[in-house]
Write a structure and sequence with these properties.
Length: 189
C-alpha cells in the first residue's frame, strides 16, 4: 500500500511537470496566444526553468525545444526515481532515455486526448469563453488532417472521434513498448 502511494505521488508530480511543459510546447507550436488564463498559468509555472534553459537550448524551426527537452528530462527523472526506489528493473542505463521518451510520448497523447475531448464538449454546450477558444486553437492542428479527409456527416464532425481512437491505439502501443523495455533481462542473469 505504501509503495502505491509513493508511486502515485511521484507519478503525479512528474506527470504534472511534463504536461505543463508539453502544453507550453504545443501552445507555441500551434501559435496559441498565452494571453488567457491557461496560457498565463503555463507561463507562470514553467518560466523559472524554461527561460534559463533557452539560453543553452535555442528554438529550432520556431519550436520551443527547451520546453520539449525539459519535459523529456522530467520523464527520465521519473524513470530513475521509480527505478531507484526498486519499483522498476532495468538492464542498462540506455533504457532510461528510451523509457523517458516513451513516457513523454504517453504524456503527449494524454494531453492531446484531453484537449480534444474538452474542445468537443465545449463546442457541444456552446460555451463561448476564453477557455473554449484556447482548447479549440490547441486541438485544431491535430484535427486538421482528419477534417480534410473526413467530411461532416449530417452536420456532425466525426474527426475528433477518429483522432481519439487513434490516440488510444498509440497509447496501447506505447504501453506495450514500455512493458517490453522494462522487462529486458538484467545483465548477468
Amino acid at each position: 500500500m505504501f509503495a502505491q502511494i509513493v508511486l502515485l505521488i511521484v507519478g503525479t508530480i512528474f506527470g504534472f511537470i511534463t504536461l505543463v511543459l508539453l502544453a507550453r510546447f504545443f501552445m507555441q507550436w500551434g501559435r496559441v496566444s498565452f494571453r488567457n488564463p491557461i496560457g498565463h498559468f503555463v507561463i507562470t509555472v514553467t518560466d523559472w526553468i524554461v527561460m534559463p534553459t533557452r539560453r543553452v537550448i535555442p528554438g529550432l524551426f520556431g519550436l520551443d525545444m527547451a520546453s520539449l527537452l525539459l519535459a523529456w528530462v522530467a520523464q527520465m527523472l521519473h524513470v530513475m526515481i521509480i527505478a531507484g526506489l526498486g519499483f522498476l528493473r532495468m538492464s542498462t542505463l540506455f533504457v532510461i532515455p528510451l523509457l523517458g521518451l516513451l513516457g513523454l510520448a504517453r504524456m503527449a497523447t494524454y494531453l492531446i486526448f484531453g484537449v480534444v475531448l474538452v474542445s468537443v464538449v465545449l463546442s457541444w454546450v456552446g460555451a463561448r469563453t476564453p477557455l473554449a477558444y484556447v482548447f479549440d486553437e490547441l486541438s485544431r492542428p491535430f484535427l486538421a488532417p482528419f477534417r480534410r479527409v473526413i467530411p461532416p456527416l449530417g452536420g456532425i464532425d466525426l474527426s475528433p472521434l477518429v483522432l481519439l481512437l487513434i490516440l488510444r491505439i498509440v497509447q496501447i502501443f506505447i504501453d506495450g513498448l514500455w512493458d517490453s523495455l522494462r522487462m529486458l533481462p538484467l545483465s548477468g542473469y
